[in-house]
Amino acid sequence: MVLLFTLTWTTEAVSQVSGEMTKYNITHFGCEVDNITATWNLRTLMGEPVIGGNFKWEAPWGGDESCMSYNDFIIVQVRSNVQRDWWGWISISPGSTPRAGEGYPYNVSGSPQWNQLICGFDRDGNRENCMTSDDAKYFWQQGFSVVDFKLIRRIR
Q: Which of 139, 140, 153, 156 could tie 13 with a disulfide, CB 3.0–4.6 Å?
């Protein structure tokens, strides 16, 4: 008996980008941050985006080690490798908010809808002006780089 398996691989959206970046001496809603490191892993699985990542931070000497809020999260700025003026932000929400000096908290990757993937964010941490599904897939397929990140807070 012979079994044949056919694997179908789609190149519809195959970009994979992972990395980390550190920033120093920032103030976030009154919280003094000596340094903050963001990590990200942006990939696809069966044609759908899979977004993973996290952040860890250190308070300055004598600073408040628990001043982050459960509403704090990271957004990474992605820029097209083909059209340098085409860019947006991708949200990376930690599973829990880390305390200073405790490293990365536990986190699970998520799979947002394509039309909620690459967006702008307003002052209150809400998505706005997101790319359409078709534009986001095309952006992803053409390749992109992470060029920056921000720590933001969702204000409800």
A: 140
